[in-house]
Design brief:
heterodimer, A: alpha/beta, Rossmann fold, eight-stranded mixed sheet, five-stranded mixed sheet, 13 helices, B: alpha/beta, six-stranded parallel sheet, 10 helices, globular
Chain lengths: 377, 221
């Protein structure tokens, strides 16, 4: 059974979160993401969930982490300046390994920037915004349908890998209305964090399961007493200054993404079989890019299209493989050139990489991208 | 000597603790644990949240559901936990810098919301862990490492601040009266709303040394 909805991207994220059994939202109003909070304020109480508008962005993510510690799948949503404020506690969630989904509906920056206009200027912040090393899982939806689906997958990843997962939407995707097909959710496809099976005295909160190298997690109130800290800690969750224990913790934090990289990475391609020119784009820019590629094909140009759905981990192997047969890879972005650095790293000189940047608050028109395709073809 | 019940709430394997000899934080932890024991609380149903600083290390020593969060933010985490599982007893242990400087906004809003959490604020008028910098409760004229010529800003009255912001139980004790501190914490936990128990303590290592407080009594006065 499927239903049809006509939603904005922000609505799709809110309903996607509910479908993923998210039952806690902590946040703070900010344009252009506020609809996510508004919808959840209405919908969560109907499902015995919790909604709280906190005093600031920092408290919004803190409350959401608290909700997750107490066992609820938790979400917070924000935009540029709020994403900056959330970085501190985002780092806490990485270190303490607390499942959480954080949405950033990107707008122009720096600072207050362009609250009502689209940008993709936070994609490197998504990777490196909080201090310290950690692995990142980050999705960039390019349609309202995908906002809904990616949100469910983001919760699954957060619960499975026991860490925060980011959804980097943008103002266009967030406020654009499109048809969405809502398929009935198969409950077996929803991931919920692994619970400990040990007796409370034997529970070791950060000891990875030998089967999948991932630790299980108890909730406060479940009968287990344990310690959570942002200090670097050992398997028991207690602070450590022991070089071996520190090394073990840090390597495992990185490894849980590296090891499952192939399970996490998602991308979409079109016309890549015989392409010579590849347009690589994500989020709203992918829409005008695909249109430009279609148009180029109509004009007899062998253009292809690649869209990372996960910005982090970046589909580097896949891009590298394609780059071997490309002359040029065009990377249009609504920033001054961020993911293009990652493309260059992946391509490693095997094809020419051509950045195409726009930061005036406008969108790329397909003809802007088409022009560059024609120039390099 | 603490009772057997109190001992059962301690992670004694981490002793000796990091607090300086003579610090009041141990007295406060003992008062808190006596209150929890007297109220017959269960460790697995009790949350101790904390932020950053000397006081916040208390969470690590108590065998309960403990969360040592980021500086000043513990009340926001605690709010999320309490909201998700209202049946849990939630106590937030904080210092004066944690509570009234970096966490000031979270503190007044926790008071305003009046959610059933008890904040135990250990006020020693200084940032002890980082080496004795001035806090919002450092009295005017006092010397701290960042006020070498004496503090010039007026200090917060934590109880008045809490009362004004809407906390439904507000009390102040000192480490010189640990039994009273225990009673106040008990009443705070029993109060169905946001409770603030300020416990005036001392940091003889940084504040006392710089301000010529030579005896224990001088340090509390």
């Amino acid at each position: 059974m499927s239903e049809i909805a006509f939603w904005q991207g922000n609505e799709a994220i809110a309903y996607g979160a509910l479908a993923a059994e998210c039952r806690f939202f902590g946040g703070y109003p900010i344009t252009p993401s506020s609809e996510i909070a508004e919808i959840l304020a209405e919908e969560l109480p109907k499902r015995n969930g919790r909604f709280i508008q906190m005093e600031d962005e920092i408290a919004g993510i803190a409350a959401a982490i608290g909700g997750s510690i107490a066992g609820m799948k938790s979400l917070t949503a924000t935009s540029g300046p709020g994403f900056s404020l959330k970085q501190e506690n985002l780092g806490f969630a990485y270190m303490a390994e607390i499942p959480l989904v954080v949405v950033d509906v990107m707008r122009g920056g720096p600072s207050t920037g362009l609250p009502t206009k689209a940008a993709q200027q936070d994609v490197m912040q998504a990777r490196w915004g909080t201090h310290g090393d950690h692995g990142t899982i980050c999705y960039a939806p390019a349609s309202v349908q995908e906002c809904y689906e990616v949100t469910i997958r983001a919760f699954n990843a957060a619960e499975r890998y026991r860490q925060p997962v980011l959804i980097m939407s943008d103002e266009i995707i967030g406020h654009m209305r499109e048809k969405v097909v809502i398929n009935e959710i198969d409950p077996s496809k929803l991931v919920t964090r692994k619970r400990p099976t040990d007796i409370p005295e034997k529970f070791v909160p950060y000891r990875p399961d030998p089967k999948d190298d991932l630790p299980c997690m108890a909730s406060f109130g479940d009968g287990y007493t344990w310690h959570i800290t942002g200090l670097t800690h050992n398997d028991w969750g207690f602070p450590t200054n022991d070089a071996q224990e520190i090394d073990k913790k840090m390597k495992r934090l990185m490894r849980k993404i590296d090891r499952f990289r192939d399970d996490i990475v998602e991308y979409e391609t079109a016309f890549t079989e015989d392409a010579e020119v590849l347009v690589l784009a994500y989020g709203s820019v992918a829409r005008s890019s695909l249109r430009a590629v279609h148009e180029a094909r109509n004009r007899g140009i062998r253009a292809g299209f690649f869209r990372p759905v996960t910005l982090w981990p970046f589909p580097d192997k896949e891009v590298e493989r394609l780059a071997r047969k490309m002359k040029t890879i065009i990377v249009p972005e609504l920033n001054c050139g961020q993911m293009v650095l990652e493309v260059e790293r992946a391509v490693h000189g095997k094809a020419k990489v051509e950045p195409l940047n726009l930061v005036n608050g406008e969108l790329f028109k397909p003809e802007d991208i088409l022009k560059v395709i024609e120039e390099v073809a | 000597m603490p009772s057997q019940e109190v001992f059962s709430w301690l992670r004694t394997r981490f002793f000796p603790h990091i607090w300086c000899p003579g610090c009041g934080h141990g007295i406060i932890m003992h008062s808190l644990l006596r209150a929890l024991v007297a109220l017959d609380k269960k460790k697995s149903q009790t949350v101790i949240a904390s932020g950053i600083g000397c006081s916040s290390r208390m969470a690590g020593y108590i065998d309960a559901c403990t969360v040592h969060t980021t500086h000043g933010r513990s009340l926001a985490f605690a709010t999320g936990i309490k909201l998700a599982k209202p049946e849990l007893t939630v106590v937030d242990v904080m210092g004066d810098g944690d509570c009234t400087a970096i966490g000031g906004n979270h503190f007044i809003h926790a008071c305003r919301r009046n959610i059933d959490i008890t904040a135990v604020v250990m006020n020693n008028n200084i940032y002890g862990m980082t080496g004795g910098q001035a806090s919002p409760t450092t009295p005017i004229g006092s010397i701290a490492s960042t006020t070498p010529f004496g503090a010039i800003d007026p200090s917060f009255d934590i109880c008045k601040l809490a009362e004004g912001a809407g906390a439904s139980y507000v009390a102040r004790a000192t480490v010189a009266n640990p039994k009273q501190a225990e009673q106040f914490i008990m009443k705070g936990i029993q109060n169905k709303g946001f409770s603030v128990v300020e416990i005036v303590t001392h940091c003889h290592t940084t504040f006392g040394r710089k301000n010529k407080r030579r005896t224990p009594i001088d340090n509390i006065n």
